[in-house]
Structure formats: structure tokens, C-alpha cells
Amino acid sequence: MLPAKRINGQNWIPDFFTDFFEGNALTKFNGTTPAMNVREDDKSYNIELAAPGMCKKDFDVHISKDGNLVIEMEKKCEDKECKKEGKYIRKEFSYSKFHQTLVLPDNADRDGVEACVENGVLNVRIPKLQTEKVENEKRVIEVK
Hints:
Blueprint (H helix, E strand, L loop, with lengths): L1 E4 L7 H10 L2 H6 L5 E5 L3 E7 L8 E5 L5 E8 L18 E9 L10 E5 L2 E7 L3 H7 L7
Antiparallel strand pairs: 1-6, 2-3, 3-8, 4-5, 5-6, 7-8
């Protein structure tokens, strides 16, 4: 699986230069992309994406028209549970957005993909097609 990294729309340039001179630029820049683990076993590919504080309604996981796996995360802090009394002096975690596209291998069963959020981790399981199914999909093209 190959990730296709995209900028998530955040205006990071002014903060990056400010943080560069304060010595914590790389820490903050890398913090905008959640950590991801990809494991493979005999039956499936398993993706673990760090998502502390996120719940299932914050995610959109789907297979694109191109057959790629797309993981999108957006957390808006506009509902009643996020509103607190008092005045914020500094507020950095009211909105978060993430978009990741993964190119799936040929033996991935795109119809059997499952996803769940548990203990601050998004788990995506992509079953593998059986060997005979992959071989049956191959087709010889006659050269004329």
C-alpha cells in the first residue's frame, strides 16, 4: 500500500516560520498528520491510525472510483459538549482535518473492507482475495 500525502488545508506557513525560530518547528509540523501503522498477515491488511479524541462520526472511510482506500477525518468542536464557560486565552484543538489516500494492492478485497474506532485508534481491515480469485481475474488479450 502506498500513501499519497496531501496538504490538509491548514494555514501552517506562518506558524512554521514562527516555530522555526523558537526551535519546535518539526514537532508541530509532524503533529498535523496522525501516526499510521500498516500490518499484513496471511488473510488481511490491517491499518491502525492514531485518532485520540475522535469518534466514528468524525471519519469517512471509503473506496474511491479509482479503487483506492480513502481515509478522511474531520473534527469540529461546535456542539454543546465542546462549549465551555469562560474566555479562552489560547485554543488550538477546536478543529482538525486529515485526508489520506492509500493505493490498495491487487489482491485486496475492496468489497470486504471494515473499519472501527476503539480506544482512540481507527482500525481498518482489508481482507485479501483468495489466490484463485486473483488468478481468475487475469485475462489474456489477443494481439492482432
